[in-house]
């Protein structure tokens, strides 16, 4: 695989080409399709096919597959075929971004994974055994990313780097001896907690190894201060070669995505739309950065700019909804949507918005119907993938600043989709 | 007590002038009572015999309307009791009726809300007026009368609507059964009078009478005097002995007019479907296939696979190699076994398959009737399902023999 950059201001616009057997390409900056045990959450092949803009690369998470190691070994034909996605390019990450990872279990020789049946302790050797059965197109090398739960300290940060490099070297050796993984690309994980020196050391050392790409790990969660996080990300990518992709885990909110793209990150996960779905919400933020003549006229005539509309955001809505809810979404279980016959989001072309209403999805949520998850997932994925498409357009048109303004504005105030007068 | 005939006759007379016969019979089995044809309904023709999946609250569970249509479903069910309480008929009407609310372009059938009387019996008090519930959702009292049921069903706008009947469990005996039968006749007349849209919402009567041949016969005599577009056979499939069950079905089809569709309510097991088609039924509904999917069970011509069982962990075959549904074309038993532990998508795969299985079964039944080889189809079906003659359920053998399909 190869990175082809088109050179644009503010971000790395281009594509990752030559992927998989079919030579597919992943547009950059872009995201991966989040899966749970190899399935887009809630979605079968038919419903996934109805989503527009599904990325060429899907993310598998190792814990789910590690539990299926024996099964995959007997199957012999690799995870892509087993999960019913024989033509999809697969990236296998070490952990699941959605499942919390208890801290304190990694050792110098092992990393712990958390699956349905609990904890699995994995050595580098066992890790490669499992990857041989999975046969992914890319995979994150086993690494020690246990630096995200609060106070880490220099010693622990140094350990994460030492261990991860040690794992990397062992796995690269094993990779050479694994014919089953001939076509697979190893992604090196850059660790180091919140210590700049360790981060730089990890980046430089990892870059010396023959990896196909880099993963910025240990930036998940909320323990690290935002300023520190952004500074470290910029510092790390500055050390990395231009011609290899940079993946980051654990970053999903639109404003954070933009911040990372500005600092040299290429590829993100798409667990965020899944989390939005699970809390009964629909993504509703606008990424349409084109100056809107209509909105300008409305402003002139004294109608509130919808972007600033959320002073009236109902306190009840926020308190009953998930505490994790962000300003980029609406909580459809709220009573206000009971007889709202508009689409989830005006102008959205997804299956749900074209055929159903807020009232219907509200009803499905209130009556605990499974279809709620299906429809919301379809909308949330399509909206998220379209957002990335808009980012690429903005880079191409040199309008990243406008997009940033739009997104950061909503990060403070909420979505711009409220109907005028509501 | 005699029903208020004049009122019912006038209303049904208006209805009669407004509509053509719903059922068009294309072929009849030369031996048994099986018929094949189509139902002509406002939202398009429906081939029959037909199995109707149940979408209780305006959704066929985890399956989208597009997926359901792609499987070949042309009629499915909505439940008046559930939709009548949440979100309520006014809201559904504003959404364009149940069709608009679900975005379902084909046909819908709503039940009256009466069956919940039996399943939620603790909450109900039945009087001549109607059924008084205490809503499990808000605790408020609701009176479901024939008029109220029709009002809700008119708002929901289904193509076929069911009368409100006084339902008693099929295991109940004694004077309550007779009372319920007579009341159902009276309620039928009230429903006919209350149906605001007979030209586009076909009201079916529901034959009651429990397991008592005399009561059933009486009910049939009375109800067939009313001019309704179709008849349902109700009050069965509630845990009664199968030997009684099939006899009541046969008694009913014997006395129902042949040119009108017969809807056997609550029947959905494959064997029951095949036998009851032989006995002369055209339409069926049941929550079983979709419900059992959500427990990890896949229906196959030889029974069912409990995919959560360890034995499927390394079984890399599809559920059924001969099934053409999206699930069988794309996924193995082993993968579904693994997915069942982690994502709801597994339930949707199984729901899709089970609906496909039911619809394909009915398609095969229908084709065999059209080709005049239904008796052979039945023999093949039984052998595939049970393996050997000694395993065939006795009631099914008897029932089929009674309509000239011997299985020996």
User: Cα-atom Rg of chain B, whole angstroms?
Assistant: 21 Å
Major beta-sheet overview of chain B:
8 strands, parallel
N/C terminus separation of chain A:
50 Å
Helicity level of chain B: 40-55%
Instruction: Please state the average pLDDT score of chain A.
Output: 90
Helix content of chain A: 25-40%
Word description of this protein:
The complex is a heterodimer of chains A (422) and B (408). Chain A is of the alpha/beta class. In chain A, 40% of the residues lie in helices and 15% in strands. Chain A has 16 helices and 16 strands. Chain B is 43% helix and 16% strand. Chain B has helices at 5-18, 65-70, 80-85, 89-94, 97-102, 115-119, 146-156, 175-194, 213-223, 242-255, 270-278, 288-293, 326-330, 333-339, 345-370, 374-386, 394-402; strands at 23-28, 35-41, 44-48, 50-52, 75-78, 107-110, 125-126, 131-134, 141-144, 160-162, 202-207, 230-233, 262-264, 283-285, 297-300, 303-306. At the A-B interface, α1, α3, α14 and α15 of A face α2, α13, α14 and α15 of B.
